[in-house]
Amino acid sequence: MAADENVLGYIDNLTAFGIIAPIRKSLIITNKRILILDASSMSSTATSAGFSYVFGVFGRGMANRISKDEIQETTKKLAQANLDELLNSNTDNVALDVTNIEGVEINRKQILIKTTQKTFKYGLSNPDVRNKKSDVYEAYIQVLQAALGGKVVSK
């Protein structure tokens, strides 16, 4: 991480759809780049599948709450770690230079990050995002705007 690079914030609990189970991702947002980091843990996936099987829809909600807290803690730790080491620790981790980001579209269900080469699409899986009384969604928008300004569109 460059000396003039500062972590502005993060977005936790994103979901990318894997072949077997959803893959949890976190965004670490700095003034220079957005890091897309793998925040999956097999225990969350197994817990989610187990709760869903035993308790149905209610169990899925419980599993989302448990994994949300796990992912949030993981993301907080990631945001404080050496970002370059994190990038190199997993081949699925990606860094997007803010100058290469053409735009970000976000709503309460998903986020699209459009770069000059590729579009990254993730589901917003933090249950607090859908809760209009919670300020989590607005906080996500604010941290994105701090890094990207007018390139961020919320729908």
Tell me about this structure.
38% of the residues lie in helices and 33% in strands. With 155 residues, the chain is an alpha+beta fold. It has an 8-stranded mixed sheet, sandwiched between helices. The longest helix is centred in the middle third of the chain and has 39 residues, at 42-80. It is globular.
The fold-level CATH name is PH-domain like
The CATH architecture would be Roll
Distance from N terminus to C terminus (CA atoms, Å) equals 32 Å
What level of helicity do the residues show?
25-40%
Residue runs with pLDDT of under 50 for 5 or more positions:
41-66
The total number of structural domains is 1
Q: What is the arithmetic mean of pLDDT?
A: 78
DSSP, total strands: 8
| Fraction of residues in β-strands | 25-35%
Please state the structural category. alpha+beta
User: Biggest sheet: strands, sense, closure?
Assistant: 8 strands, mixed
Order of helices and strands: EEEHHEEEEHE
Multimerization state: single chain
The number of helices is 3
From the alpha carbons, calculate the radius of gyration and give it in angstroms: 15 Å
Q: What would you call the shape?
A: globular
Task: Identify the CATH class.
Answer: Mainly Beta
The main sheet orders its strands as: 4-3-2-1-7-6-5-8
